[in-house]
Amino acid sequence: MQVNQSYDPTTEEASVKQLNYRAGSRIPSVQLLGEEGRPDNYRFTFNRWSDDKGGGWPAPRHHHPFEQVRYAIEGDYTISKGNVMPPGWVAYFPESVYYGPQVKETNLRMVELQFGGPTGLGYYSTRQRRAAYDELIARGGTFEKGFYQWTDDAGNMHRQDSSEAVWEVAMDVPKIVYPKPRYNSIILMDPDSFAWRKDAPGVGRKLLGVFTERELRINLIQLDKGASFSIGEEPANEIVFLTQGSLSYGNETYVPHAAFATSAGERPDSLVAAEQSEMLYVKLPTFAEA
């Protein structure tokens, strides 16, 4: 099992900050990583946004060939005009679905899980993104206001969404291809509107949703003191993010914002509540061929 202690702003990965190809400054702390080159690759980060460029993180309207789950902890997040995601809510961003223009303010604290979607196109690793970014800069282009801009040999200026440009180079494809969307918009979920259901003595669950034929599953889990939660029983990657309380694993106790992950085929393991605890649980898409 991958384990990452609770978020600590003094240990942020400064090298990742250099990968900002949107306007503004995102400061991610990478907590969990999948395996490069697999359709079920993923990246789980705890993010905040700096004001060293005079604002938060604006981004133009765009979409991705991968998927995302986001959980807002605190602060202000405008997903699109007039569409604000309150703290405590969970959002699912399906493959190919447009969103934005968005603004992530400097007071925002949010975890983001990005992963290969149901079509099986995968997700680029940090190493692949870094190499792609460096190559695009070496070609003479620039990243400005969420776009990659360059001039061709004939002197014509071109502009492309920065995420698209990085994807094409990182994944070694001549042109990005978006699968036909399965949904018509992102899906915002208010966990307070869901009821707890008992899975077992001391274990409660809020099933927020199951999506696509690959069965992405998003839950909140509640444990009474001493109760345990098994992770690693699914034929897919599983992610747990502790939102309240504390969990014991091995000889360690983990406090809020700790993160845990198991891989498809890994032996099951258990997390035990040292006090009443709640966590976000995501079972990623199942790929029989992964």
From the structure above, extract its key features.
290 residues; mainly beta; Jelly Rolls; six-stranded antiparallel sheet; globular
Compute the number of helices: 3
Low-confidence stretches: 10-18
**Class derived from helix and strand content:** mainly beta
Overall mean pLDDT stands at: 89
By CATH's scheme, which homologous superfamily of the largest domain applies?
Jelly Rolls
Strands ordered across the widest β-sheet: 1-22-19-24-17-16-15
Largest sheet: 7 strands, antiparallel
Number of domains: 3
The amount of helix comes to: under 10%
CATH architecture of the largest domain: Sandwich
Instruction: Indicate the overall shape.
Output: globular
CATH class of the largest domain: Mainly Beta
Beta-strand segment tally: 24
Q: For the CA atoms, what is the radius of gyration?
A: 19 Å
Strand content: 35-45%
How far the N terminus sits from the C terminus, by CA atoms, comes to: 18 Å
CATH topology of the largest domain: Jelly Rolls
| Order of secondary-structure elements | EHEEEEEEEEEHEEEHEEEEEEEEEEE
Write up what this structure looks like:
A hairpin with a 2-residue loop joins β20 (247-249) and β21 (252-254). It is built from 3 helices and 24 strands. Residues 10-18 have low confidence and may be disordered. The strands form 5 sheets. Strands 1-22-19-24-17-16-15 form a 7-stranded antiparallel beta sheet, with no helix packed on it. The protein starts with a strand and ends in a 7-residue tail after the last strand. It folds into 3 domains: 2-123 and 179-187, Sandwich (Jelly Rolls); 126-167, no CATH class; 191-283, Sandwich (Jelly Rolls). It has 290 residues and is mostly beta strands. It is globular and about 70 Å long.
